[in-house]
Design brief:
Radius of gyration: 22 Å
Number of domains: 1
Helix content: 25-40%
Order of helices and strands: EHEHEEEHEEHHH
Oligomer: single chain
Largest sheet: 5 strands, mixed
Strand content: 25-35%
Structural class: alpha+beta
Distance between the termini: 66 Å
Number of strands: 7
């Protein structure tokens, strides 16, 4: 789904839909399979009447399967995106906005160079990737069972060879 970002925002248009998480290939790269949960998303354009600034409001929510970095067990993680992106015409404007933000020492809105051919699902995917934790963890890891999990059972210990050397 391709839009002209400036026209979309100027007209105050809205797009929304759902997609299976596996549709977002970059998001799911390195995550356990299957990724079959639904992700719902909404993109709304708007124009600030006073300043003429164009904005894109991006919302998305869904669940992805990740691996807990504490207990190494897969679990479902809810992702929630609610972000506003200001549109600028070119990279010079983008750099000027970033310089103003740095000078103000304030975490203001994010800006995006408006494209005439903006891929909506790629934008949604970018925002989902940004909220995906680097090291996801359970709030409370499940109690370990007496039986080793299949993922732990199938991998031989890298120190098994050293044990054999110690016996000699």
């Amino acid at each position: 789904m391709i839009i002209d970002a400036m026209e979309f925002a100027r007209a105050g248009q809205v797009l929304e839909g759902t997609a299976v998480a596996s549709t977002f290939v970059r998001l799911c790269e390195g995550l356990p399979q299957p990724q079959d949960a639904q992700v719902s998303w909404r993109l709304a354009g708007r124009c600030d009447a006073g300043t003429g600034q164009l904005w894109l409001d991006v919302q998305a929510q869904g669940r992805v399967r990740v691996v807990c970095q504490r207990c190494i067990e897969p679990f479902g993680l809810d992702l929630q995106v609610d972000n506003t992106l200001g549109l600028v015409r070119n990279t010079a404007e983008l750099e000027a906005m970033e310089a103003l933000e740095t000078a103000a020492d304030d975490a203001g809105p994010e800006y995006l160079v408006a494209e005439r051919h903006l891929d909506v699902l790629a934008l949604i995917e970018d925002e989902l990737i940004l909220v995906l934790p680097y090291a996801p963890r359970h709030a409370v890891c499940p109690e370990p069972s007496d039986e080793p999990s299949p993922s732990r059972q199938s991998k031989p210990s890298p120190f098994a060879v050293l044990e054999q050397l110690r016996k000699h």
